[in-house]
Specification:
By secondary structure, the protein is mostly helical. The chain is about 65% helix and about 0% strand.
Length: about 210
């Protein structure tokens, strides 16, 4: 993956810029004073925090594609998958019991499941990297077909995020279902979709 990303040039730095922009937007949302209960829809702060962590991991992998230790990256991604899965489980329990929360009033299990999928997809993309011994055949990475299938899935999700009509047909599934296409609210999710797809394709090519 590292060599493919390093050779991508313009696409690589466009992705870095996009992830940085998404991180800034997420930080701005997290820094806002929490609105008073009943004042309207609230941001999903846990989802925003998950977006921020993923953005920082992606930026690190893109800026230092060949210098980043694959074992360290896999360790971080493993921790993210575990934490996100636990948060998703807690969210499902709260949703089933009808418990609202001041920080996650707009949250749904389906929305947060996205972060589990994104982290797991990147973990899979990194699986095997750094374990191949020099002089041995094979690159030691995951099979290209599942990576490309996951990349297509994230691209399709990006298309849905850009199509308000499609998002309204499945309310509550996407992190920001109420935002119009082009709204700053959907930018971090859109960047994560396309950026993850790019990284998965890089892993498939590498």
């Amino acid at each position: 993956m590292g060599l493919f990303v390093e050779q991508s040039g313009v696409v690589r730095w466009m992705a870095v810029t996009a992830f940085c922009l998404a991180a800034v937007l997420v930080v701005a949302r997290l820094a806002r004073v929490r609105p008073v209960a009943g004042a309207g829809p609230r941001a999903d702060r846990e989802s925003d925090a998950a977006h921020l962590v993923m953005c920082l991991v992606m930026v690190g992998m893109l800026v230092f594609p060949t210098a980043v230790d694959p074992h360290a990256v896999r360790g971080v991604l493993t921790a993210m998958v575990v934490v996100y899965t636990l948060l998703l489980g807690e969210r499902i329990l709260r949703w089933r019991n009808g418990i609202a929360d001041a920080d996650a009033g707009a949250a749904t299990p389906g929305a947060f499941a996205y972060h589990v999928l994104a982290a797991a997809a990147m973990w899979y993309a990194m699986s095997g990297h750094g374990t191949h011994e020099p002089g041995m055949p094979g690159h030691g990475g995951p099979a290209p077909a599942p990576l490309l299938a996951l990349a297509v899935l994230f691209v399709l999700d990006a298309v849905v995020m850009l199509t308000p009509g499609l998002r309204r047909r499945v309310p509550g599934v996407f992190p920001h279902p109420g935002g119009a296409a082009g709204s700053p609210a959907v930018v971090p999710h859109l960047v994560m979709d396309l950026g993850t797809a790019y990284m998965l394709m890089a892993a498939a090519a590498g």
